[in-house]
Amino acid sequence: MKFLQTSNLVLLLSAFLAMLGGARAGTLPENSWMSLPHHPRLYADAAHWAVLKQQVTNDPVSRQIFAVVKDSAERVLDQPPVAYVDTGAFWHGPMRQAQGRILALAMTYRLTGEPRFLVRAKLEMRTMADLPNWYPQHFLDTAEGALGMAIGLDWLHDALSSEERERFATALVEKAMRASLLVSDGKTWVTGNNNWTAVCHGGLVVAALAVAEREPQLARQIVGRALKNMPRYAELYAPAGAYSEGPDYWAYGTTFYALMAEALRTTFGTTLDLERAPGFLPTADYTLQMTAPSGQLFNFADNGSGLGYEPVMFWFARELRRSDLLQREAANLGALEEAIAAGAPRGDSSRMLPLALIWRDPSITTAPFPKRPLTWWSEGGSQPQAVMRSAWNDPRATFVGIKAGRADDSHAHMDIGSFILEADGVRWAVDLGRESYPHARANGLADDLFKTTQTSRRWSIFRCGPESHNLLRFDNAPQLVEAKAEIRPLPPGKEAPGFLVDMSPVVRGQVARAERRIRLHPDRSATIADEWTTGAKATVVTWQWLTRAQVTVTNSGAILRQQGETLHLRITEGAGARVEVEDVSKPRHAWDSPNPGLSRILIHLQTPPETTGRLSVLAKLGSSR
Q: Model-level pTM greater than 0.90?
């Protein structure tokens, strides 16, 4: 296994562009606003729409995408407009649903010319426009609605009456743009550095560009505010393209960041170097690296285990001229079509599918690209992460994901030093990911759900706190939320590649020092080697491994069995270690969801004062080859 720090040419390209353009976005020259292009101008002008009509006939991929878009549009023709009901997730779901309907209907009308799609799109837009507000108290919902309304207004502009244009533009101005000016700059999405910042500014910029002729000064204000604040959000990608909130939230924030950049490009002919922020172009590979051989994500923090259909990958493929970035989307389109037909939640991933068609470039070659590294890490960043795998394109390959960083961050957990391990098609060491937000809110955790202070009740949520992660713990104390642990690669030498997590900062006051080393060996086995030094008092050390496998304790460790496969955990260092297994499948609090079939393997050690202790566990497959 060859260790590579970066993903070759993509990172070099990003560094070169960063030198040219810098990490900070610029400002638009005043004369840019004086010569706005005609509608449609968001993502595709009239000439591009003419090309798309030919493209959906001549290019098989484009034809398949449009077939799904058109099918989505046809399915809503006889359905009533979206109902805006707060079901515990505010209006987030309804706004996204309406957005998806408007995009699909508008695109289908433009490419077929059939009036039925225009009529139904206008009904959806009227329903949204007539709402008393767009739920500004949860501004993500407002931004999602603004994006859908703005694109509908722009793409259908020439087919709308003057009264309809005014009605829809007024809704954008009053219920999104002016409403956003009531949000303070301090500690909100306006100046933040998480997915909210990208989504809210991105949706508002698209809205501003849709109505810029009508409200020139307000549009300038909205765009200028976004350009001022988005560079701080973009720091999340530095230096190597990792995303602090994890791969699931990567899709959300990154899509809206690209939407803003592309809206500027198609309106003004420039992105103002938004895509040149350090790490942003390399982030095209991030979710691919974070996807295990089973197809499930390394779902640390508040992430789910699966990724939806992500049209933004078509944007990256076009920008980087890399068809390999689309392998997952090509494979998943059929599944998405089935989900839409079944009305499954995954169908929500289709809401921006029309943009995949617009960003699809049939001229991108299918020439082979350099192999992706088997070992990858974030090279620092706000939430250091690393992954190792024994092979690509092998569903039985071994995969290890490692998480460092800090708990006091957006959507973060007390998971510093935790890992997952997957092999032979089984996820042996699991991360449970997010607790259901509506469930937690409805059962007493509404106030603390997203508070990450040391004493927040968020850490009492089983899936968020230290109890549910594959950690090394000292006297069962919680990790320090404001401290940060770093990851660094271990020198391969004669040994297998691996990473070290320096956990000392997050367990300060519990022990004097703590480090975790994880290596992936050529036979696909993995070693988790921990070392710590106690302070002035004796310490009870507990090693945790969460699994859904059937566990049998042995004299040397444990045997795990799942799906007909076997994994042996053997303690190779750690005299006096005691192993036990707990059933942790049942909820501990009202705000916890059940975790069917979940067990926790615990290894206990007593370490005297001012002593260096060690525990090393070898995870060896029954099918090692």
A: yes
